[in-house]
């Protein structure tokens, strides 16, 4: 963020206090790369197409392929890839890809510290842009290759507290934000980045909610990276 003077500094402080939002870019121990400072996330919101939410008709999880497909061809499923990225002190089962233990410190959605053990239900891998929301805002019209890519793109995935995540459902920024107010700027920036990357639209209420959050962190960067927007050829017959 560029240098501010006098009243501009006061204005930013007031905005941060009002939203409870800071430029916390952390996703557990890691997360998508950040680039394009000086309000890149806020500017990107204005580039998103605004349309009404389409019907949910025809949606199912299977329309986005088999859960946690190995689209990056590293011989590990996507769920374990994200656990390894976002948890600390990770332990694997017998040298395999399977994460048996790790620490989510802190969980970005609740702010709590959580211990992950394989087989427990304490940690979810959340789609930052829910697949149902994506379906109603453009993904219904995609081919299977693009839907599979979205469902397994690290840019759209994050390890979080399961109980907090269950309250999100398929909500967008207009209907759900993380209870941990310090993470809201980064969370909304992630949603903007995914929607921009895949060409998904937003509703008017959703865009307004995004802009309101990002007004409290005018220098918020935009996450980058992730996988290509088409899954490898072997997935395209699904």
Topology at a glance:
Elements (H helix, E strand, L loop, with lengths): L5 H14 L13 E3 L4 H6 L32 H9 L1 E5 L6 E6 L9 E4 L5 E5 L3 H6 L7 H8 L5 E5 H5 L17 H15 L5 H11 L7 E3 L14
Antiparallel strand pairs: 1-7, 2-3, 3-4, 5-6
Explain what this protein looks like in three dimensions:
This protein has 238 residues and is an alpha+beta fold. It has one domain. It is 31% helix and 13% strand. The protein contains eight helices and seven strands. The strands form three sheets. Strands 2-3-4 form a three-stranded antiparallel β-sheet, with helices on one face. Strands 1-7 form a two-stranded antiparallel sheet. Strands 5-6 form a two-stranded antiparallel ribbon. The model is unreliable at 1-20 and 22-30 (pLDDT under 50).
Notable features of this structure?
alpha+beta; 7 strands; 31% helix; disordered N terminus
Report the span from N to C terminus. 45 Å
Structural class of the secondary structure composition? alpha+beta
Strand content: 5-15%
Radius of gyration: 18 Å
Report the count of strand segments: 7
Mean pLDDT: 87
SSE string, helices as H and strands as E:
HEHHEEEEHHEHHHE
Q: What is the percent of helical residues?
A: 25-40%
Task: Describe the main β-sheet briefly.
Answer: 3 strands, antiparallel
Shape label: globular
Number of domains: 1
């Amino acid at each position: 963020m560029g240098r501010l003077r006098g009243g501009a500094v006061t204005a930013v402080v007031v905005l941060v206090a009002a939203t409870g939002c800071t430029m916390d870019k952390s996703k557990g121990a890691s997360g998508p790369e950040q680039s394009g400072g000086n309000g890149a996330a806020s500017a990107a919101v204005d580039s998103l197409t605004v349309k009404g939410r389409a019907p949910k008709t025809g949606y199912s999880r299977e329309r986005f392929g088999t859960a946690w497909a190995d689209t990056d061809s590293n011989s590990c499923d996507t769920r374990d890839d994200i656990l390894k990225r976002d948890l600390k002190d990770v332990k694997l089962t017998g040298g395999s890809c399977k994460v048996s233990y790790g620490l989510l410190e802190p969980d970005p959605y609740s702010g709590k510290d959580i211990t992950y053990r394989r087989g427990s239900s304490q940690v979810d891998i959340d789609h930052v842009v829910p697949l149902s929301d994506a379906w109603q805002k453009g993904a219904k019209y995609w081919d299977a290759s693009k839907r599979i890519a979205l469902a397994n793109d690290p840019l759209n995935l994050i390890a979080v507290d399961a109980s907090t995540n269950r309250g999100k459902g398929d909500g967008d920024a207009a209907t759900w934000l993380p209870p941990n107010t310090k993470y809201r700027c980064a969370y909304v920036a992630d949603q903007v980045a995914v929607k921009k990357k895949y060409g998904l639209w937003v509703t008017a209420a959703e865009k307004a909610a995004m802009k309101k959050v990002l007004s409290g962190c005018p220098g918020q960067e935009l996450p980058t990276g992730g996988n290509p927007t088409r899954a490898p050829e072997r997935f395209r017959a699904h």
